UniProtKB/TrEMBL annotation:
Top-tier EC class: transferase
Source organism: Lasiosphaeris hirsuta
Name of the protein described by the UniProt record: Phosphatidyl-N-methylethanolamine N-methyltransferase
One cellular component term from this protein's GO annotations in UniProt: endoplasmic reticulum membrane
Pfam families to which the protein is assigned, alphabetical: PEMT
Alphabetic keyword roster: Endoplasmic reticulum, Lipid biosynthesis, Lipid metabolism, Membrane, Methyltransferase, Mitochondrion, Phospholipid biosynthesis, Phospholipid metabolism, S-adenosyl-L-methionine, Transferase, Transmembrane, Transmembrane helix
Annotated S-adenosyl-L-methionine binding sites: A102, L103, G104, E184, N185
Compartment list: Endoplasmic reticulum membrane; Mitochondrion membrane
The reaction(s) this protein catalyses: a 1,2-diacyl-sn-glycero-3-phospho-N,N-dimethylethanolamine + S-adenosyl-L-methionine = a 1,2-diacyl-sn-glycero-3-phosphocholine + S-adenosyl-L-homocysteine + H(+); a 1,2-diacyl-sn-glycero-3-phospho-N-methylethanolamine + S-adenosyl-L-methionine = a 1,2-diacyl-sn-glycero-3-phospho-N,N-dimethylethanolamine + S-adenosyl-L-homocysteine + H(+)
Record-linked Gene3D superfamilies: 1.20.120.1630
Topology feature Cytoplasmic, residues: 71-97, 183-212
Intramembrane segments: 17-37
Length: 212
């Protein structure tokens, strides 16, 4: 135990403030958007502030996107302050790093393409629901392409830099996203279930009218 801890402190320089800042940003972002989105769902405070649900959702999307850029910037800055490791350097890790970055970006970009801006950025909390479930690529490969794609990009970047600290921060990204999935998916499922109930009710009414 003490051996592995000592090894870890050799591989990762925990005295760098940039490491803590990066770790903080990674945990902060999903926490932020979940708190804001649930508050919006309960109180519609953003819809009221922006004048419409659509505009409010775009505003939140721009904010989340900017926070993501900041988080990526802090991650790369943290890696530059960290020691390298020979096992992560050389051709193989470099090729693996580029491959992971390409696949990760493919997952993120294709899922944004499929869902659109409001579908990607928590539109359901604003009452902007998708017509139906998206089942095409990349959703036929993974149920959370955005999160797994982003995690792959973090891993790829850590390999390109050859920094063990990157692996540690990538592990944090994965844990944070797994927690987010546990938190978000039941809520989203609840929002859609409610819509189905309302649709069923409306359907009854329409059918009732027809009979008259
Ligand atoms: C997912 O869909 C894409 C495009 O529709 C298809 O090419 C691919 O084979 C599918 N993958 C799986 C695992 O079903």
């Amino acid at each position: 135990m003490s051996f592995s801890l000592e090894t870890l402190t050799e591989l990762v320089d925990f005295n760098q403030q940039s490491l803590l800042l990066s770790a903080f940003a990674i945990a902060f972002n999903p926490t932020f958007w979940n708190i804001v989105a649930r508050r919006e769902y309960r109180t519609k405070f953003l819809t009221r502030a922006f004048g419409s649900a659509q505009t409010a959702c775009y505003g939140l999307a721009a904010t989340i996107f900017s926070l993501g850029l900041l988080r990526d910037f802090l991650y790369e800055r943290a890696l530059r302050d960290q020691p390298s490791h020979p096992l992560l350097q050389g051709e193989l890790p470099t090729y693996a790093g580029y491959t992971l970055l390409a696949l990760g970006n493919l997952l993120v970009i294709s899922s944004t393409w499929q869902l659109g801006i409001t579908g990607t950025f928590l539109g359901d909390y604003f009452g902007i629901l998708m017509d139906g479930m998206v089942t095409g690529f990349p959703f036929n490969v993974t149920n959370a392409p955005m999160y797994y794609g982003s995690t792959m990009s973090f891993l790829g970047t850590s390999l390109l830099y050859g920094k063990p600290a990157g692996l540690l921060l990538t592990a944090e990204v994965l844990v944070v996203y797994l927690v987010a999935i546990q938190f978000e998916n039941p809520f989203t499922a609840g929002i859609y279930a409610k819509r189905e109930q309302q649709r069923a009710k409306l359907g009854h009414k329409v059918e009732g009218k027809k009979e008259l």
